[in-house]
Amino acid sequence: GTSVVVGDDLVCCCFLFLIRPCCLQATEEHLHLQFVTQNMSNILELLSERDCYTAGSTGVLEAAISLQALEALNFLLAATEDGTSVIGVDKLALKQSQLSQAGFSKITNTFSISRLQAWLQSLLSQNPFGVEACIAQRRRRSTSLSSSSPSAHLVPLSMGKNAQNKHYAPTGHRLFLFTQVSHQTLFRTEADIGGCGVVIKRSHYSHIYLLAPLQFVRIDRCRHSTLVLGAVDSVVRLSRCEDITIIAACRRIQISESSNCRLYLCTPTKPLLLSGVTDITLAPHNTHYPQADDHLTRVGLLTEVNFWNEPLCTATPALEGAIIDKSHQWRIMPAAEFFLFTVPLKLTTKRKELLGPLPAEYSSELSLREKRLAKWRREVAAAKLNDEQRSHLTDDIQRKFKEWLLESGYQNELESLTALQSAMS
User: Fold this and answer.
1) Distance, CA of 394 to CA of 287 (rounded, Å)
2) The pTM is what?
3) What CA dihedral angle connects 274, 279, 285 and 287, to 10 degrees?
4) pLDDT, tens digit only, all 425 positions of the chain
5) Which of 229, 216, 239, 316 shows the shortest CA–CA distance to 265?
6) Strands 207-211 and 223-239
7) C-alpha torsion sign, points 104, 110, 116, 120
8) In a 3-state reduction of DSSP, which class is residue 27?
């Protein structure tokens, strides 16, 4: 049957999703639905106009809502008749089968508030494209997808509990959930998740690459992981995370209740730091992949303006009158700690290929490292080592490199990438 579901109040005026699906869990969706139901009368009163009345069922004049005001309700609600397509609430109310129940008067071209409220509340239901519905429709992703993309070959280990509604949700309402990804290197490209919203929960010790234009990304309760995101059309929300690295080009980013996180950003709005954040390190975006420029264009993100280093802190002190030490909340990454990040695909990341120009201090530091490396190579060449000496030098370098891989934890990722390359060959 016909149903009306709560929609997104900021991203688009005709979404079926609950308001900000990226910040709502399944239980929160139910609470939000309950809140809207209980406060429907107040919502409709806000939409009513002065001197707008219609005749009630008893002939007495009562408050009414104009058709234009009902269209504004699409900012919050939307409708579905078949569970796969979306229409505005006003379009549903004007259907011949719904006109009378919705309280529409052809004489005044308005809706009776009381009858409209009863009609909406009788149809209001759980979002069929939300997190809870997606979990209910869970389809475990195989470790072998279509061979047409790099994500077709994944490391043959447990990839966590994944769910998605791409097989039935319309464009603009598609959602992917990645949960409990552990000790994995996970790739997803545009063919898999392009245009979808993504939720990543309870993942740890993993490297996750989502190289696609995305609607939103929510990262919750993740630890000791690296996430490389494509172009995010709306917002990246980070909550209850510890020791993770995020590389993202996004319209907005919001961090709450997280600690020891490194954010490499390209964003036209100031990062929002909420309560419970400590040791957040901010740095400019530091990587590139072949389709990055196209993905940025498609979501309408410009790289010329980047407020990565101008966060807004809205945290309040636990005790009234106390002073928050912002130096414990966030810092700007020193140039000496900044390195370029190479996406493990067949490409070379050069500075000129980054999404935007680097600040002078970071660019100078990278140039200095290149000069040091060139100088070292010249010194090795000038030493005129014989074969035995060159072999000893190579062995020492490889030994030190392997020690660094183990100490840094990159050995596991390297092994995953080796398995990935073997699967693709």
Assistant:
1) 29
2) 0.78
3) -130
4) 555 555 443 333 333 333 344 445 555 677 777 888 888 888 888 888 766 666 555 555 678 888 888 888 887 887 877 777 788 888 888 888 888 888 888 888 888 888 888 888 888 877 777 777 777 766 434 333 333 344 433 444 445 677 778 777 777 778 888 888 888 888 899 988 998 999 999 999 889 999 999 999 999 999 999 999 999 999 999 999 999 999 999 999 999 999 999 999 999 999 999 999 999 999 999 999 989 999 999 999 988 899 999 999 886 654 455 455 667 899 999 999 999 998 887 644 454 478 888 999 999 999 999 999 999 999 988 988 899 988 999 999 999 999 988 887 777 777 777 776 666 65
5) 229
6) parallel
7) positive
8) helix
Distances (CA, A) of 122 to 117, 125, 377, 414: 8, 9, 75, 56
Residue 225: which of 253, 279, 197, 262 has the closest Cα? 262
Residue 118 token pair? 């009863």
363 CB contacts (<8 Å, ≥6 apart)? Answer: 351, 357
**Distance between CA 99 and CA 69 in Å, rounded?**
16
Cα–Cα distance for residue pair 197/174, rounded to 1 Å: 6
Contacts of 347 (CB under 8 A, 6+ apart): 288, 289, 290
**Residue whose tokens read 């020690």:** 403
Q: Token digits for 3?
A: 């149903």
d(CA 372, CA 236): 37
The CA-based diameter of the chain, rounded to the nearest angstrom, is 106
State how far the Cα of 147 lies from the Cα of 87, in Å rounded to an integer: 36
Distances 338 to 88, 230, 362, 411 between C-alpha atoms, Å: 48, 20, 7, 21
Q: What is the DSSP letter of 277?
A: -
